[in-house]
Amino acid sequence: MWSSGQPIETSGAAGYSVLTGPVGLGDSAGGSSPSGGRAGVAEFFGPALAGVEQLAGLLEAHGVERGLIGPREMERLWERHLVNSGALAALLPERGLVVDAGSGAGLPGLVLALMRPKLRFELVDSMRRRTEWLAEAVDRLGLANVSVTRERVEQLPNRGRAKAVVSRAVARLDKLAPWTAGLLRPGGLFLALKGSSAGEELAACGTALRRCGLVGAEVLELTPLPDMEPTYVVRATRSGA
Ligand SMILES: C[S@@+](CC[C@H](N)C(=O)[O-])C[C@H]1O[C@@H](n2cnc3c(N)ncnc32)[C@H](O)[C@@H]1O
Q: Relative to the CA of 69, which ligand 1 atom is closest?
């Protein structure tokens, strides 16, 4: 279920490529929110659905009041935030450590930890109120595969242990890459969820990625559910594998 699907288009430009294609869903999937297409969402999350529904309930109850998510975001919590975060699940390795840099409300880290229980996740955020939320959410969701660290991610020791570093809405690539590349082991994946201008951002920041040993950078355009707007991911690999 979690294959990234066959790319249907590849184009090279300015040192990166754009791949487009479906992610991990069968043809029977439909709809983009529990109200509009619950079957599609249920298939997308699979056995993780109950946990993701519980996370959605926690965010609906506390997300606005605790400054984790904007009030106007609540009506698109599933499509814009939960499914969007889950789109990375198909790109993660089988086992090992994944660091979520600037996890905030737990996006994408909590969603991915629910979807990929065999992986270990370290959710990193510099703000105390965010890490307090994350620790509470981990407890409420009963997640045994997650730890929470309060630190600026660039101040973590360069541990070289992670199989992947994920991030969403944290910083431009030319900051994010040097902040996080040292956390990756050789062959580890840098995966940044971005908006539709991901290609331009990568074109502007490609040198910064290469300087910190991130190679093969490309933009993936993913459509986690058939009716959904595409999700863009910048993917690169830590050299030295
Ligand atoms: C806009 S929020 C996004 C949160 C979450 N990733 C999401 O998509 O909803 C950015 C988060 O990154 C955290 N952050 C920003 N710079 C950071 C850094 N250098 N190290 C760790 N966390 C950082 C902030 O505290 C905040 O929680």
A: 9
**230: CATH:** 3.40.50.150
| Contact between residue 87 and residue 233 where contact means Cβ atoms under 8 Å apart | yes
Contact at 8 Å (CB) between 125 and 134?
A: yes
- Shortest-distance atom of ligand 1 to CA 68: 9
Ligand 1 nearest atom to the CA of residue 175, by list position: 19
Q: Give yes or no for a cis peptide into 108 (omega within 30° of 0).
A: yes
Among 74, 85, 125, residue to substitute to test ligand 1 (most atoms within 8 Å of Cβ): 125
pLDDT, tens only, 168-215: 999 999 999 999 999 999 999 999 999 999 999 999 999 999 999 999
Number of domains in the chain: 1
Q: Is residue 1 part of a domain?
A: no
Which pLDDT tens digit goes with each residue over 47-57? 999 999 999 99
